[in-house]
Inverse folding.
C-alpha cells in the first residue's frame, strides 16, 4: 500500500500482520482521494482502515487541521483519538478531540497549536468552527463515522452546515456506516463527488 515507513512500523507493533478485506479495499481508495461510502458491520475493521488512510495523507509539517472526523458520541470520538495517537505517534501526528466534557479553554489552547486531525461530535465541532478556534482552510478530508447514527441523533443541521462551510475547496468525504439509508444517500448526492460504494464487506 506504499504506507510511510513509520506508520507501517506502528501498525506491525500493534499486532496487525495483514490487512483485513475491508482494509485492503478502503485504504488505497482513500489514500488516492476517492469519496467513499463504506457499509460494513461493527468489527469489520473499517475504523482502523480510515485512520491509517488519514495518517498516511496528512502533511506533518503543516500545523493545521487537515482531517475532520465526526462521531455520534464522545466515547467513540475518544476511542478514535486514542487510535490516531497510537498509530501516529512515531512521526509526530497530532490529534485533538472536540467533545463535551473537555473544558473549552483547554480545547481552544490545543486547537491553537494546530493539530493535524480533529475528531469530535458535530455540536461541539460546529461551535469551535463558528468561534474560529478550529480553522477550516486546510481541511482536505471529512469523515462521518457511524453515519447511520449521526443524522437520526439530531445532528443533521450541524452536518449540513459543516458541509456548506467546507465547500470552498474540493474536499474528500468518507461515510462509514453499518447501514446506508436514503437519508445518507441524499447527503452523498448533495455533497460527494462520484462516491465509490463498498458494501457488506466481511473478513
Amino acid at each position: 500500500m506504499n504506507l510511510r515507513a513509520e506508520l507501517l512500523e506502528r501498525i506491525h507493533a500493534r499486532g496487525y500482520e495483514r490487512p483485513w478485506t475491508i482494509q485492503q479495499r478502503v485504504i488505497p481508495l482513500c489514500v488516492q482521494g476517492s469519496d467513499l461510502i463504506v457499509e460494513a458491520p461493527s468489527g469489520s475493521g473499517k475504523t482502523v482502515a480510515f485512520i491509517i488512510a488519514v495518517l498516511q495523507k496528512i502533511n506533518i509539517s503543516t500545523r493545521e487541521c487537515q482531517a475532520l472526523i465526526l462521531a455520534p458520541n464522545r466515547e467513540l470520538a475518544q476511542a478514535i483519538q486514542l487510535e490516531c495517537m497510537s498509530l501516529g505517534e512515531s512521526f509526530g501526528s497530532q490529534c485533538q478531540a472536540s467533545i463535551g466534557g473537555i473544558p473549552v479553554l483547554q480545547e481552544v489552547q490545543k486547537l491553537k497549536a494546530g493539530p493535524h486531525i480533529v475528531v469530535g461530535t458535530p455540536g461541539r465541532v460546529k461551535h469551535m468552527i463558528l468561534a474560529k478556534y478550529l480553522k477550516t482552510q486546510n481541511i482536505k478530508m471529512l469523515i462521518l463515522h457511524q453515519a447511520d447514527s449521526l443524522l437520526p441523533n439530531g445532528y443533521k443541521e450541524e452536518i449540513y452546515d459543516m458541509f456548506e462551510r467546507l465547500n470552498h475547496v474540493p474536499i474528500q468525504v468518507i461515510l462509514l456506516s453499518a447501514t446506508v439509508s436514503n437519508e445518507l444517500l441524499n447527503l452523498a448526492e448533495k455533497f460527494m463527488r462520484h462516491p465509490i460504494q463498498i458494501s457488506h464487506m466481511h473478513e
